[in-house]
Amino acid sequence: MAQTAKSKFTLIGVIVAILVIGLVIWNQQKKSHQSELVIGISPSFAKPLQVAADEAKQQGLNVKLVEFSDWNTPNITLNHGDIDANFFQHQPFLDNAKKETDFKIKAFDVGAATHVGLYSKKYKNFADLPHKAKVVIPNDPVNQGRALQLLQQAKLIELKQPDNFLSTLNDIAANPKQLQFIEVEGPQTARAIDDVDLAFGYPHYLRLAKTADPENALLFDSNTDKRFAILFAVRDDYVDRDDKLRKFVDIYQNSPKVKQALDADFGAKLWFPGWK
Question: Which residues cross the membrane (predicted)?
Fold first, then answer.
């Protein structure tokens, strides 16, 4: 009997020890999760951000980058509070998203801005474009307006309000070549280039898709408009505990290694800092 009782006590002790160890591990994992900064991103921005995350880790800050393939889910996920921040949109895009939804999201700070271009794998200049050429442009209001302004800069169309970056297809006043527009989600313009005569494109998406040389556009936009810089966006009620996001943004904006990654990923002449 004594031996049986001793065995029971030993078993109870083992169970208690296991529970205590499990509780300690769970608590450590919980603390680790709470101290982790989670940022939703577009895959085209991943490499420079990963360089910044690696540097942050060396400084004791854990950053988890979560990739989204579309331009809707990052704001939905952020608005639900499932991530701390996102990095995929510029201010005009965010303004339009908030106008169309009940998102409670704001800009925290800005990252890199990139030039955009008009690309063709079939023609060397705009004069060679055929009548009723197929042209792919983004389907969201803001980036579509940006594409139409670039087509206007190329003298392929005229807009009713030349300076309106929110112009739509309905705002085209003149279309001499009767260009046929194909609307797709912004990230897909890079993959649609093989099927059309001309495509509005983002250098970083073209580099990611490997469908065209991002530095070989027929025309790039001529300005360095910082309102199109990509934002670090957060919920309106976001509290930057321990300055985690601030530290990460500072690394992104000031690290020589991040600059090298931006040069390699976007092209040294195709991006500019939105924070300066």
Answer: 9-26
Q: How far apart are CA 52 and CA 205, in angstroms?
A: 20
Question: What are residue 225's phi and psi, to 5 degrees?
Answer: -85, 105
For the whole model, what pTM was predicted? 0.82
Listed as ranges, residues in the chain with pLDDT below 50 are 2, 5, 9, 13-14, 16-17, 19-33
Contact 69, 187 (CB under 8 A): yes
Q: Give the pLDDT confidence score for residue 8 in this predicted structure.
A: 53
Alpha carbon separation from 33 to 173, 251, 259 (Å, rounded) = 54, 21, 29
Give all domains of the chain, ordered by start, each with its CATH number: 36-114+226-273 (3.40.190.10), 117-220 (3.40.190.10)
- pLDDT tens sequence across 135-194: 999 999 899 999 999 999 999 999 999 999 899 999 999 999 999 999 999 999 999 999
247: CB partners within 8 A, 6+ apart: 56, 59, 61
The residue whose two tokens read 């990460």 is: 248
Residues comprising the chain, all counted: 276
Phi, psi of 29, deg, nearest 5: -65, -40
